[in-house]
C-alpha cells in the first residue's frame, strides 16, 4: 500500500457524487449486504462503512461480509476501496467476537494495570492483526480520554485512567501496535469525554465545563502527543462545551473546536470524523441535514451516520443542498477528500481489499494470541488490599467447608460468550435456569457468571454456592448462605453507578465483621470483594479488607481471577492513575497457593529444586543444601510429626519453593527445618507464603511449647545461614520481619577435619584428658538405651533424643561414646553419637554424603550441666571419636551440630574448620505473633 500525502487529485474526483461519498461513513443493520447499504455504495458512492456487533456473527462471516462490501464498491466503479472500521477496544467493547479465532484481551485500563506499555503494544498489534485478517482496515482507537472525574464516568475502563501522561503513554502504545498491523488509527473522543456532566434527558447534550486552559493541562495532553506521533484520524465528540470564551452546543459541529483547537492549536492535519449525527440530542435540536452541513463546515472530513437509511439519505441531500447554497465550498470538500485519500493510501488498496486472508491466517495466529491473551489477563489482575491474607483461598478454608459467590444481575458484555448464550436463550424462548448442574457443586445462580462459578468449583473439592443479588438488597436467602459458608466472594460491576451494589456489599461486610464462634474460636468471616469493571468501586474504602480488580468480566478475565484466588498465579497488576498514587493504594504482597508436599508427586521436582538452589549459590560459597536429596527431609520417625509444603506449577509440576516442618513430641518443639526458593523466582513472596503456612500448621500441634528456626534432624539448616555478612544481614532482616526475635539467636555450626589418615591429636591433649576425672567408652546397641536416654534429658535441645535413638537402633554403623565419672562409673556425664556414611543417620546429614565415600561423623554432644570441665570433656569425646573413625579408614570427620560460642578455637586446634555457620532462633510458642511483612 502506498503512503504519503495525496496532493494531486485524479480527474475521476471531478464527479461531485463520488467526491461527496468519500466524506461519509455509514452503518447498517444486517449480517449480509442489504439493499440499503448496496444503494449507499452504488448510488451515493459512500467511502467508509462502520461495522458493529450487530453486523458481525463470526470471523468467517465477517470476512465474507467485508469482501462483499468491497466487491460491491469495486463493481460500482469506486476509484479506491472502502474504509471499513470497527470498535475493537477489547474488554467490554468488541464489535467482532469469535470464540475460536478472535482472542479476548483486557480493556484499556486492564492493560494499564499491567504496568507494561510493551505488553499493551503486543496486544494492540495482535488485535489489529486479527481484524485485519477479516479485511477491516480502520480501527476506532485508541481511546485517549483522561478520566478527570474518574468515579462517575460511563467511559470507565475504556480509557487507561486519570493521569494524562499515563493515558498518553498507553494510547501511543496502542496506536503503534495498530499501525504495525497495517490499520488506520482513530483517537477518541476529542476534546475529552473524561469529565462530562449529564443533565438527565436524552435530549440534553453532556457538557464539558472545564476551560481551555484546564483542558490543555490535562485532557488534551494525550491528544497532543498522539498527534505528534502520527495518529491518522480523530473523532470529535458530540458534547457541549461551556466555559469562559467558549460556548459550543456540539463540539463536532464547531469550527472553534475542529478548526481552531484541533487543527490550528494542536496542528492536526489528519482525518477528522464527527460523532454519529443520529444521536438523539443532535438530530432533535438541529436536524441531520443541517448538522451534516455544520460538521463539514466546522472542518470534519468524514460524517458518521450509524444505521437509519432515511436519515443517511437526509444527510447526503443536506450536504448537496449546502453546496448549492454556498454554505460549503467545493474547495472545502476537496480538502477533506485529500485527507481521506491519504488515509486510505496508508491502510488499503484493491489488491488487499479483495483478498482478505481470513480464517487461514487467523488459524496460524491463534496459538500465540491465546498465550498473549492469558499472559495479559494474568498480568492485569490487581490485588489492591489483602489485609488479613485471605488469598489464596486454599490456605483459608478446608475442602469440606463451603464457599459462597454473590454476583450482581448485570447485562453480559457484548464481547462475551455469555452474551451470545443469553441472546440465544431468549430467542429460543427458554426461561433462565434457576439451578446449576449439580456436577458443578453449585446451588443457584445466573448465566452471566457461570464460568467463574465453574472455575471456582474446579479449583476445589468443596462446594461452591452461588446466587445473585439485586436492588432488593440482602434477603433472608443471602443471610442464610452467608451464615452457612466459610468464606464469601462478592462481585461488583460499576458500583458507583449502580449504588445498590455498594449498599449490598457494605451490608455483607457488616455481617462478616460480626464475631462468630467456630469451635470456641472467634474470628471475622473472610470476605473478598472483586470489582469486575471499574476499579473505583471500593478502591478508597479501607473497610473492605480484601479488594481485587479485574477491569472486565469476560470469560478469560474471570478465569485469571480464579487462578489468583487459588494462588496459581501471582497478582502483579495495580490500579492505574493518580487516584491510586495519591491514596497510596499499592499492590498487596503476593500470596501463592501453598500445597502439602506429596512424596510420590513432588520428590523428583524437589530434587530439581535442590539442584537449582545449589547451582545458584555463588562460586566462592558452598550451599548448605549440597549433598541433599528429597529423602533428606523425610524422617518417617514415629516420634516426630512432619509436614512439608511446596509452591508449585500444577501444569509443569515444577517446584518454586519448599518448606519443611517438624514437631518433636519429646520436647514439644515445632521447627522449621528448611525454607528455600528457586533462585529465578525470589522476591516474589513465595517464601512469605510458605513461612506463613508453616507457622499456622505448627500452631495447631497439640502440646507445642516452643518454636525453633533450624532443626538438628535433619541436619541441613541448623538455623539462619550466616556464612557471609551481606547474606546474614538480609536473612536476619527477612526472618525478623516474619516475627522471629533474631536478637536472641544462638550461633551453631558444622565443622570438618579433612585428611584424617594423616591426622594426629595436638601435643599434650591426651595427657590433659587424663586429668579430666572421666572414663570413656564406646557402646553399641539398644541395650544401653535406658541410661543414655536418661542422661540426654539434661538437655532440652530438639532432635537429640531422636538422633540417639537412631544411633542406638543402628549398631552396625553407629555407636555412642560415653564419658563416665571416674569415681562413679554408673553416672554418665557426657556423650556423643559416632556414625559413618553407611548409617541411617547419615541420610539426614547431607554434608557427609557430599564430603566423600569414606566419611564419618560425630554428632549431638551432651555434657551434664553439673560438670565443670565442659570443654575438656567435649574435646575428649571428639578425640576418641576421631580415633575410631581413623581406625575405620575414614578420610574425613564431620561435626554436624556444634555450639558456635566458645568451642570453635578449641576444635580448630584439633584440626577442624568451619563448614557452615547458622543462627538458631527459638521462642515460646505461646507468645508467637506473626508480624505482617513490611
3D structure, described in words:
By secondary structure, this protein is α/β, with parallel strands linked by helices. The chain has four domains: 18-362, TIM Barrel, CATH 3.20.20; 381-582, Rossmann fold (3-Layer(aba) Sandwich), CATH 3.40.50.10140; 595-747, Aminopeptidase, CATH 3.40.630.30; 750-918, Gcn5-related N-acetyltransferase (GNAT) (Aminopeptidase), CATH 3.40.630. Helices cover 35% and strands 19% of the residues. Helix 11 crosses helix 12. Residues 414-445, 582-588 and 930-934 have low confidence and may be disordered.
What labels would you give this structure?
TIM Barrel; Rossmann fold; Glyco_hydro_3_C_sf; GNAT_dom; Glycoside hydrolase superfamily
How would you summarize the topology of this molecule?
Blueprint: H1 16-21, E1 24-26, H2 35-42, E2 48-50, H3 59-75, E3 83-86, E4 88-90, E5 93-94, H4 108-113, H5 117-133, E6 138-139, H6 164-180, E7 186-190, E8 196-197, E9 207-208, H7 212-217, H8 221-228, E10 233-236, E11 240-243, E12 246-248, H9 256-265, E13 271-274, H10 280-285, H11 288-298, E14 303-305, H12 309-324, H13 330-347, H14 350-353, H15 359-380, E15 382-386, E16 403-408, H16 417-427, H17 450-458, E17 464-469, H18 476-484, E18 487-492, H19 499-513, E19 516-518, E20 521-523, E21 527-531, E22 546-549, H20 555-565, H21 578-582, E23 595-596, H22 599-615, E24 640-648, E25 655-664, E26 669-677, H23 686-699, E27 706-709, E28 720-721, H24 725-737, E29 746-753, H25 765-770, E30 774-779, H26 785-791, H27 800-808, E31 814-821, E32 824-836, H28 846-851, E33 855-863, H29 870-887, E34 892-899, H30 904-909, E35 913-924
Parallel strand pairs: 1-2, 1-14, 2-3, 3-6, 7-10, 9-11, 10-13, 16-17, 16-18, 18-21, 21-22, 26-27, 33-34
Antiparallel strand pairs: 4-5, 8-9, 11-12, 15-22, 19-20, 23-24, 24-25, 25-26, 27-35, 28-35, 29-34, 29-35, 30-31, 31-32, 32-33
GO molecular function, one term: acyltransferase activity, transferring groups other than amino-acyl groups
InterPro entries: Acyl_CoA_acyltransferase, GH, Glyco_hydro_3_C_sf, Glyco_hydro_3_N, Glyco_hydro_3_N_sf, GNAT_dom, NagZ_Beta-hexosaminidase
Keywords: Glycoprotein, Glycosidase, Hydrolase
Amino acid at each position: 500500500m502506498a503512503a504519503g500525502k495525496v496532493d494531486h487529485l485524479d480527474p475521476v474526483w471531478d464527479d461531485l457524487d463520488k467526491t461527496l461519498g468519500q466524506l461519509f461513513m455509514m452503518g447498517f443493520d444486517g449480517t449480509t449486504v442489504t439493499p440499503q447499504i448496496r444503494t449507499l455504495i452504488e448510488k451515493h458512492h459512500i467511502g467508509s462503512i462502520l461495522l458493529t456487533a450487530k453486523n458481525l456473527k463470526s470471523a468467517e462471516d465477517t470476512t465474507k461480509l467485508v469482501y462483499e462490501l468491497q466487491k460491491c464498491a469495486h463493481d460500482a466503479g469506486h476509484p479506491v476501496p472502502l474504509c471499513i472500521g470497527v470498535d475493537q477496544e477489547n474488554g467490554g467493547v468488541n464489535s467482532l467476537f469469535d470464540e475460536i479465532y478472535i482472542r479476548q484481551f483486557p480493556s484499556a485500563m486492564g492493560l494499564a494495570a499491567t504496568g507494561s506499555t510493551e505488553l499493551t503494544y503486543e496486544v494492540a498489534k495482535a488485535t489489529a492483526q486479527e481484524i485485519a485478517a477479516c479485511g477491516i482496515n480502520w480501527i476506532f482507537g485508541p481511546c485517549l480520554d483522561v478520566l478527570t472525574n474518574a468515579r462517575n464516568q460511563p467511559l470507565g475502563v475504556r480509557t487507561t485512567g486519570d493521569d494524562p501522561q499515563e493515558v498518553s503513554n498507553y494510547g501511543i502504545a496502542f496506536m503503534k501496535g495498530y499501525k504495525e498491523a497495517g490499520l488506520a488509527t482513530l483517537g477518541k473522543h476529542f476534546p475529552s469525554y473524561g469529565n462530562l456532566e449529564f443533565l438527565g434527558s436524552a435530549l440534553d447534550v453532556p457538557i464539558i465545563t472545564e476551560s481551555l486552559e484546564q483542558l490543555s493541562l490535562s485532557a488534551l495532553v494525550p491528544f497532543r502527543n498522539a498527534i505528534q506521533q502520527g495518529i491518522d484520524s480523530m473523532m470529535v465528540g458530540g458534547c457541549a462545551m461551556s466555559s469562559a470564551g467558549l460556548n459550543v452546543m456540539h463540539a463536532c459541529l464547531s469550527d472553534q473546536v475542529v478548526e481552531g483547537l484541533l487543527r490550528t492549536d494542536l496542528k492536526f492535519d489528519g482525518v477528522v470524523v464527527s460523532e454519529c449525527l443520529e444521536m438523539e440530542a443532535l438530530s432533535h435540536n438541529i436536524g441531520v441535514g443541517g448538522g451534516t452541513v455544520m460538521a463539514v463546515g466546522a472542518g470534519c472530513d468524514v460524517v458518521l451516520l450509524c444505521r437509519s437509511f432515511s436519515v443517511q439519505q437526509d444527510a447526503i441531500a443536506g450536504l448537496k443542498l449546502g453546496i448549492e447554497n454556498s454554505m460549503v465550498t467545493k474547495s472545502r470538500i476537496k480538502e477533506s477528500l485529500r485527507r481521506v485519500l491519504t488515509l486510505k493510501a496508508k491502510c488499503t488498496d484493491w489488491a488487499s481489499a479483495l483478498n482478505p486472508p481470513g480464517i487461514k491466517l487467523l488459524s496460524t495466529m491463534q496459538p500465540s494470541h491465546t498465550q498473549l491473551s492469558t499472559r495479559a489477563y494474568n498480568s492485569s489482575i490487581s490485588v489492591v488490599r489483602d489485609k488479613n491474607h485471605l488469598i489464596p483461598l486454599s490456605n483459608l478454608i478446608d475442602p469440606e467447608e463451603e464457599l459462597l459467590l454473590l454476583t450482581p444481575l448485570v447485562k453480559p458484555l457484548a464481547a462475551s460468550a455469555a452474551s451470545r448464550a443469553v441472546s440465544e436463550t431468549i430467542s429460543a424462548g427458554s426461561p433462565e435456569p434457576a439451578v446449576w448442574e449439580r456436577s458443578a457443586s453449585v446451588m443457584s445462580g445466573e448465566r452471566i457468571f457461570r464460568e467463574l462459578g465453574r472455575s471456582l468449583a474446579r479449583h476445589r473439592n468443596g462446594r461452591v454456592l452461588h446466587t445473585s443479588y439485586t436492588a432488593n438488597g440482602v434477603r433472608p436467602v443471602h443471610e442464610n448462605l452467608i451464615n452457612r459458608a466459610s468464606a464469601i466472594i462478592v462481585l461488583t460491576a460499576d458500583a458507583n453507578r449502580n449504588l445498590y451494589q455498594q449498599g449490598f456489599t457494605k451490608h455483607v461486610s457488616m455481617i462478616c465483621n460480626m464475631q462468630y464462634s467456630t469451635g470456641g474460636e472467634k474470628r471475622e468471616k473472610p470476605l473478598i470483594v472483586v470489582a469486575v469493571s471499574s476499579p473505583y468501586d471500593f478502591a478508597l474504602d479501607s473497610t473492605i479488607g480484601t479488594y481485587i480488580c479485574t477491569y472486565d468480566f469476560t470469560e478469560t478475565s474471570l478465569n485469571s481471577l480464579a487462578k489468583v484466588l487459588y494462588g496459581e498465579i501471582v497478582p502483579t497488576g495495580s490500579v492505574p492513575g493518580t487516584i491510586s498514587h495519591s491514596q497510596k493504594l499499592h499492590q498487596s504482597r503476593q500470596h501463592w497457593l501453598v500445597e502439602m508436599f506429596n512424596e510420590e508427586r513432588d520428590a523428583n521436582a524437589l530434587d530439581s529444586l535442590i539442584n537449582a538452589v545449589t547451582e545458584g549459590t555463588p562460586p566462592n560459597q558452598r550451599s548448605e543444601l549440597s549433598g541433599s536429596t528429597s529423602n533428606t527431609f523425610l524422617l518417617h520417625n514415629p516420634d516426630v510429626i512432619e509436614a512439608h509444603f511446596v509452591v508449585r506449577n500444577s501444569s509443569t509440576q515444577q517446584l518454586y519453593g519448599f518448606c519443611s516442618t517438624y514437631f518433636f513430641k519429646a520436647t514439644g518443639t515445632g521447627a522449621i527445618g528448611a525454607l528455600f526458593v528457586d533462585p529465578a523466582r525470589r522476591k516474589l513472596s513465595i517464601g512469605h507464603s510458605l513461612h506463613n503456612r508453616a507457622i499456622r500448621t505448627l500452631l495447631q500441634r497439640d502440646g507445642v511449647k516452643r518454636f525453633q528456626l533450624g532443626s538438628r534432624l535433619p541436619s541441613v539448616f541448623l538455623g539462619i545461614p550466616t556464612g557471609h555478612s551481606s547474606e546474614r544481614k538480609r536473612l536476619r532482616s527477612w526472618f525478623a520481619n516474619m516475627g522471629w526475635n533474631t536478637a536472641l539467636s544462638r550461633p551453631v555450626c558444622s565443622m570438618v577435619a579433612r585428611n584424617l589418615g594423616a591426622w594426629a591429636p595436638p601435643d599434650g591433649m591426651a595427657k590433659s584428658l587424663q586429668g579430666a576425672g572421666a572414663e570413656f567408652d564406646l557402646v553399641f546397641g539398644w541395650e544401653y538405651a535406658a541410661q543414655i536416654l536418661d542422661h540426654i534429658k539434661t538437655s532440652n535441645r530438639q532432635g537429640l533424643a531422636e538422633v540417639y535413638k537412631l544411633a542406638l537402633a543402628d549398631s552396625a554403623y553407629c555407636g555412642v561414646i560415653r564419658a563416665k565419672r571416674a569415681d562413679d562409673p554408673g553416672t554418665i556425664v557426657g556423650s556423643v553419637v559416632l556414625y559413618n556414611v553407611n548409617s541411617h543417620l547419615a541420610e539426614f546429614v547431607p554434608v557427609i554424603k557430599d564430603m566423600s565415600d569414606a566419611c564419618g561423623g560425630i554428632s549431638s554432644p551432651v555434657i551434664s550441666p553439673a560438670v565443670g570441665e565442659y570443654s575438656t570433656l567435649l574435646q575428649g569425646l571428639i578425640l576418641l571419636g576421631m580415633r575410631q573413625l581413623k581406625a575405620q579408614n575414614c578420610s574425613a570427620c564431620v561435626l554436624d551440630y556444634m555450639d558456635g560460642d566458645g568451642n570453635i578455637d578449641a576444635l580448630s586446634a584439633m584440626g577442624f574448620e568451619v563448614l557452615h555457620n547458622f543462627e538458631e532462633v527459638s521462642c515460646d510458642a505461646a507468645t508467637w505473633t506473626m508480624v505482617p511483612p513490611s
